[in-house]
Amino acid sequence: MFQFQHIGYLYALALLPVFVALFAGAIYWRRKRLQQIGTPEVVERQILGYIAGRSTTRFILMCIAFAAIVIGLANLRIGDKAERTERKGVDVVIALDVSKSMLAKDMQPDRLTRAKQLIMSLTDKMSNDRVALLVFAGKSYMQVPLTIDYSALKMMLQSVSPDMVPYQGTVIAEAIAMGTESFARNERKYKSLIVISDGEDHDANAVEAAKKAADEGVVIHTVGVGSPMGATLLDPATRSAKLDENGNPVITKLNEDALRDVAAAGRGTYSLLDNTDGVAAKLNGAVEAMEQKNLGGVLFTDYTSYFQYFLVVGILLLLVEWVLPGASGATKRIMNKKVSE
Asked: Is this structure's pTM higher than 0.85?
């Protein structure tokens, strides 16, 4: 089983398209300058020591070296000693509100970012539980099905934004229904749904949906994100306060009552997201306190790392690029002769 130990380093690979774009731009600029002198192909042949394609070769070597070093830092490894263990845990579906009101800045840096930080902290505290992630606003979408691969969930979480859901609103009932469908239908327990939202513009069917889910054995916890005092909602296009039809600033407020009602109907707890680590510990404690099922599975206890091979390849390629001559040997002899004269 291949995996990366430090998966965050892989984000640096996103710089490769930027490097390619800059290099292509430099080549385009160079050819435009040469066209002012004459035909680029003819001018290049007149340039002392010019080697066709040399700059492109050096650039490709540097890009491959960069990629190899990044992969080395991420530490590709293989589990080579498997141990079958009796893992016990529960299934947890995290429903994250991504409506535009979650961009309000009554929590720093904004509500959505703080909610993401909570999910990160919560998964850091989990060990054997299976976790899923769905996002919702006016509609709900499953992003990560139930899995024990927390790193995959965290990676997907980075790209979550309001743009993922074209329909606005806070339809908690649909999120509860989709979360409930994600669990095993033949089990009446071992299931928990965590709804993270500001509760604004919620639908009237949320409490009824929570009761129905609770009857199927799903324990629903809710987390309120934002301030009951509210904050002005900014318009991303103008970067100024968003106005309603009467020209007044739009104020978005945390609706704690709605979230408390959903938690009560779902036989769970409500938490205000004031302290991220504290709320994560509370939620993890509630999950651990539930009756747990045997999940079985195979855990890899020993790994063989291959980071050194990628680092060696990267360093060697950089050395090759460094010693690769920028001009032809004949040119160097001519230049040395002139210097000696």
From this structure: no
